[in-house]
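Need Splicing factor 3a subunit 3-like protein's 3D structure for a figure. Predict it.
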Amino acid sequence: KKWENGTFPGWPKETSSALTHAGAHLDLSAFSSWEELASLGLDRLKSALLALGLKCGGTLEERAQRLFSTKGKSLESLDTSLFAKNPKSKGTKRDTERNKDIAFLEAQIYEYVEILGEQRHLTHENVQRKQARTGEEREEEEEEQISESESEDEENEIIYNPKNLPLGWDGKPIPYWLYKLHGLNINYNCEICGNYTYRGPKAFQRHFAEWRHAHGMRCLGIPNTAHFANVTQIEDAVSLWAKLKLQKASERWQPDTEEEYEDSSGNVVNKKTYENLKRQGLL
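Structure prediction for Splicing factor 3a subunit 3-like protein:
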């Protein structure tokens, strides 16, 4: 549609509809005779004749005379015998299709230029900026770009971890042999910590002195002492605490039985016996 309307960039309607006038126009006001025109040569005269739609064949003299005869005249006033016959020939149609394809390619190029214009401008500025830098500055920039690209690749890399292994210092799963060496394949559950699961014996042993286990023991009203090491069940902790309280009660000093007195005969008796003898008046 643009081709028919002559709106293709660089292909106006008069150019696309009059393909026979494909030559280059020549200003004849600078020439006073056909001999001067002949000095331009066959190709230039042919181009000028094509631009006017005239016959372009013949010798150098015939072409020069034919072209000079049009000086100061309009195309309508020229003899019809001077014009090329059958302008809409088969060859012209073939040229039309070829030029139409060329115009289509040119239109695509114009579109790409418009789309990529900003990127092309930024690229041009970047090249100028790099050219203004010293060799050391360019090397530093290249090293920074390489390091940035490597870090981006590491960030975008999908970590393959089908066994759900813990991550090491480099953000990658630790080796499986190291995983088993530290016993991380064994899970320990602690009911006192709210059924929290610990991986490996090291983390399990360490958790007894951490805040989560201490908070659970405090909620049970039990002191978090060394007596309760490796105790993870609430029932076991409560029963052990009851035994410890009985043991402490039995170990506590009892003045009635352990406090010693001496009677009038010099015998050592406990407080309870001494009080009984005193009440009976035997002292």
